[in-house]
C-alpha cells in the first residue's frame, strides 16, 4: 500500500504502457477489501465497508471515477424514486424479488438522508423522481468522493483489472502492471451499456472465472427499431400514457407509459421500461387513445357516424386527442379519404380504425444497442448470489453489487437505488466478515 496512501482518487499515469514485469502488491498483509469499479455501487460499498485501520482499495479503469453517474439523468442524476418500497419491487421485472432485502435494508429514504446529512438537498420532481436540488450529478459524485476520502478509502483510477483468481482464503486481482491480494473482493463493474463510460462487461468474465453462470445479457432501457416503420416523419410526436402490448405468438406483457415516435421506431418511458422484455420479431401493439378498448372505440365511431354524420371524420378523431398528423397517417394507411364525412364511414373502415387506434401493430426490427441502452439486462445469475448479503454462494468473500447482477430497473431512479442498496448490503456483510477475521487475528 506504500504508494497508495493518497486519499483522493489518483490516476495511474502508466496505465497505457506495456509493463516490463508485473509486480505483486501486498506481498505481506493482504488488503482488507478490493472493489473493482468506481461507479455508484462500488463507491458506496467501499464507503460503507470502511473502518478504523481498514485497507480498502477501489480500482477504476477510467481516468476518473463515476463516469456513468455523471451522465445519469442527462447530467441531473435521477437518484431514486419517491414511491413506497413495496411498489418499488414491481419496477425490476421478474427478478425484483431478489432485491427485496437490499431495498428494505437501505431504502430510498435512507439514500436521501445520506446525501442530505452531507449537505446535498434532494427534490422530488415529475412522477416521483428524486434529484439533487442542484440537479447536477457532479454534486452527487462529489459527496461520495468526499465521504470516501474522509473514511480513508483509496481510489486508483486508470487501473483496468485484467483477471482475478481465488487464492487460499482471499483473492489475487491482476492489473496490467501489478497484482494485488485481498481478503474480500467486490465486483461492481456495471453492465455493458454506454461502454465509453468504462462499463464494457469485464465483470462477467471475472465472475465466470470464479465459476459463476451469467444469465444472457442484452440492452435494456433501450429504444426499439420498427420494421417497415410508417411514422418516421412523425418523429418527435409523443403519446402520453399509451398502452403497449408485446405479442410473441400470444400476449407476453403489457405496460402503460409515455411513448415517443423516433426516426427509426419508438422510445419514451413506456417503451424503455418494457424493453427488457422485447425481442426482435415481436409485435408491439400501441394504443393511440388512452383507456379505450377496441369494442368501445368501434361503438363510439358507430355513434358518431349516426349522430355527427355531416362532420369530417378527422375532426372527430381530434376529439380523442390523437395528434392530427398521426390521425391523418392512420387514415392514409387504411386508405380512408382524408375528407371523409362520418356518415360515409363503412363497417370495414370502422373496424379497421378501431383496431389500429386501440393497438397499432408494429413489428420489432431490433433494440437499440449498448451505445444507446441505459441499462443491461441479464448478468450474474441470481441463484448463485445470497440476496441477504450479496455474497457469492460459490466463492466465500466474493461479493457483487450494482448492474452486474441479473436485475435491471425501470426509468425513474430505480437503477441507481439498486446500485446503492446492493452496495450497502454487500458492505454490511463485508464489515461483519472482516470484524470476525480481525477478532481471530
Ligand atoms: C445515459 C444514462 C443515463 C442514466 N440515468 C439514470 C438515472 O437518471 N437514474 C437511474 O437510476 N439510473 C440511470 N442510469 C443507469 C445507472 O447509471 C446505472 O444503472 C448505474 O450507474 C450502475 O451502477 P454500477 O456502479 O453498478 O455500474 P457503473 O456505473 O457502470 O460503474 C462501473 C464502473 O466499473 C468500471 N470498470 C469496469 N470494468 C473495469 C475493470 N476491468 N477494471 C476496473 N474498473 C472497471 C467502469 O469504468 C465503471 O466506472 C443511466 C444510465 C445511462 C447510460
UniProtKB/TrEMBL annotation:
Domain of life: Archaea
Domain RsdA/BaiN/AoA(So)-like Rossmann fold-like: 32-428
Cofactor(s) needed: FAD
Keyword Amino-acid biosynthesis: no
Keyword Flavoprotein included in the entry's annotation: yes
Record key words, sorted: FAD, Flavoprotein
Domain (RsdA/BaiN/AoA(So)-like insert) ranges: 219-371
NCBIfam families: aminoacetone oxidase family FAD-binding enzyme (TIGR00275)
Name this polypeptide is given: HI0933 family protein
Taxonomic placement: Archaea, Methanobacteriati, Methanobacteriota, Stenosarchaea group, Methanomicrobia
Amino acid at each position: 500500500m506504500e504508494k497508495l496512501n493518497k486519499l483522493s482518487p489518483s490516476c495511474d499515469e502508466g496505465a497505457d504502457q506495456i509493463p516490463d514485469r508485473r509486480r505483486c502488491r501486498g506481498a505481506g498483509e493482504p488488503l482488507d477489501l478490493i472493489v473493482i469499479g468506481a461507479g455508484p455501487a462500488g463507491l458506496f460499498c467501499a464507503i460503507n465497508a470502511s473502518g478504523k485501520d481498514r485497507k480498502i482499495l477501489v480500482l477504476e479503469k477510467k481516468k476518473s471515477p463515476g463516469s456513468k453517474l455523471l451522465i445519469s439523468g442527462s447530467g441531473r442524476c435521477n437518484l431514486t424514486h419517491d414511491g413506497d418500497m413495496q411498489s418499488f419491487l414491481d419496477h425490476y421485472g421478474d427478478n425484483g424479488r431478489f432485491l427485496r432485502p437490499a431495498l428494505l435494508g437501505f431504502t430510498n429514504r435512507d439514500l436521501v438522508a445520506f446525501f442530505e446529512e452531507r449537505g446535498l438537498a434532494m427534490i422530488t420532481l415529475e412522477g416521483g423522481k428524486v434529484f439533487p436540488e442542484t440537479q447536477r450529478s457532479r454534486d452527487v459524485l462529489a459527496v461520495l468522493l468526499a465521504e470516501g476520502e474522509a473514511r480513508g478509502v483509496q481510489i486508483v483510477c486508470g487501473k483496468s483489472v485484467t483477471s482475478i483468481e481465488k487464492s487460499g482464503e482471499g483473492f489475487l486481482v491482476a492489473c496490467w502492471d501489478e497484482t494485488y491480494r485481498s481478503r474480500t473482493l467486490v465486483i461492481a463493474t456495471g453492465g455493458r451499456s454506454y461502454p465509453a463510460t468504462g462499463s464494457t462487461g469485464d465483470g462477467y468474465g471475472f465472475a465466470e472465472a470464479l465459476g459463476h453462470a451469467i444469465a444472457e445479457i442484452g440492452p435494456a432501457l433501450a429504444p426499439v427499431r420498427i420494421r417497415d416503420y410508417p411514422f418516421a416523419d412523425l418523429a418527435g410526436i409523443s403519446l402520453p400514457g399509451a398502452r403497449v402490448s408485446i405479442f410473441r405468438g400470444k400476449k407476453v406483457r403489457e405496460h402503460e407509459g409515455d411513448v415517443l415516435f423516433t426516426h427509426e421506431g419508438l422510445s419514451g418511458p413506456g417503451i424503455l421500461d418494457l424493453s427488457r422484455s422485447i425481442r426482435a420479431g415481436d409485435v408491439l401493439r400501441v394504443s393511440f387513445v388512452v383507456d379505450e378498448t377496441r369494442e368501445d372505440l368501434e361503438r363510439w365511431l358507430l355513434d358518431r357516424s349516426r349522430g355527427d354524420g355531416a362532420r369530417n371524420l378527422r375532426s372527430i378523431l381530434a376529439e380523442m386527442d390523437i395528434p392530427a398528423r398521426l390521425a391523418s397517417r392512420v387514415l392514409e394507411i387504411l386508405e380512408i379519404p382524408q375528407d371523409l364525412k362520418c356518415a360515409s364511414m363503412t363497417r370495414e373502415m370502422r373496424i379497421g380504425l378501431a383496431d389500429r387506434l386501440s393497438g397499432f401493430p408494429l413489428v420489432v426490427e431490433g433494440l437499440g444497442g449498448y451505445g444507446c441502452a441505459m441499462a443491461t439486462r441479464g448478468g450474474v445469475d441470481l441463484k448463485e448470489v445470497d440476496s441477504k448479503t450479496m455474497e457469492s454462494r460459490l466463492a466465500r468473500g466474493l461479493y457483487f453489487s450494482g448492474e452486474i447482477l441479473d436485475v435491471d430497473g425501470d426509468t425513474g431512479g430505480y437503477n441507481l437505488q439498486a446500485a446503492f442498496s446492493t452496495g450497502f448490503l454487500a458492505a454490511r456483510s463485508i464489515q461483519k466478515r472482516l470484524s470476525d477475521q480481525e477478532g481471530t487475528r
